[in-house]
Predict the structure.
Amino acid sequence: MIRNKKAMLFCSQIILTGALLTGAPCLASGATGANADENTETDNNISDSVFGSSDTAPESEEPDHSGEGQIHKPESLDAPDFTADPDFVDDSTDNTYGYYTIMGETTVSLAQMTSQYEEQGVEYPSATLKEGGAETIDEFCTIILEEANAEGVRGEVVYEQAMLETGWLQYGGDSGASQFNFAGIGTTGGGVAGVSYPDVRTGIRAQVQHLKAYACEEALNQDCVDTRFDLVTRGSAPYVEWLGQQENPNGGGWAAGSDYGEKLRKLLAQLKAE
């Protein structure tokens, strides 16, 4: 009897041990599966959170419109100093009449131009012309030399005409410095302000092109910005002296006032004495 009880107890222990041994892996496997699903859901939630944040695009930078509407110096432009060449010859008046030709190489240096300006005792309108790309008289004259050279126009003629027309950049007439019109283009009197340009370079380029229209019949080397270019009788004033309508034998010319060309010649003589 005792043996039977011991046998039954032994069998029970074996059965219990077997149940424990076979059931444990199942329980462990179930727990692992539950944790895996939970972890997967957690990972998905994290993933949604990370990628969801990318739906909000970063704030874009404010676009820069400061240069719109303006022209800029092409890489091909330069401001050569022809006078620095030891073989330089001033041929500005080398013609039958001894008149000052508008087309040709610039026969003065940047230093001569700025020196003459500084001797006038006037204040350069830096605050206004800075907005147009020429904060100093050096920058202003450099642009003149570059643009004049691009079209084969003598830079000193462009410079002196700008000084004559604007009263050494002080203005006071129908147009103002903020128009960047340095030659009175379109100022026909009676308070007409004339043409306005987006910056200094455009205004000077228009002046150079207008002078070229009067001085010769050659095509422009750059895009035309002179809106009055086609109004000029091409080649009607090849000399500075003929820019005044009253002195032009062809009856045309840049300005209606008397002795316009002579005034320019005097300024040119002073410039070359610098």
Summary: The first helix runs from residue 2 to 53. The two ends are 142 Å apart (CA to CA). Helices lie at 2-53, 110-118, 126-130, 137-151, 155-166, 200-215, 260-272. The chain is about 45% helix and 0% strand.
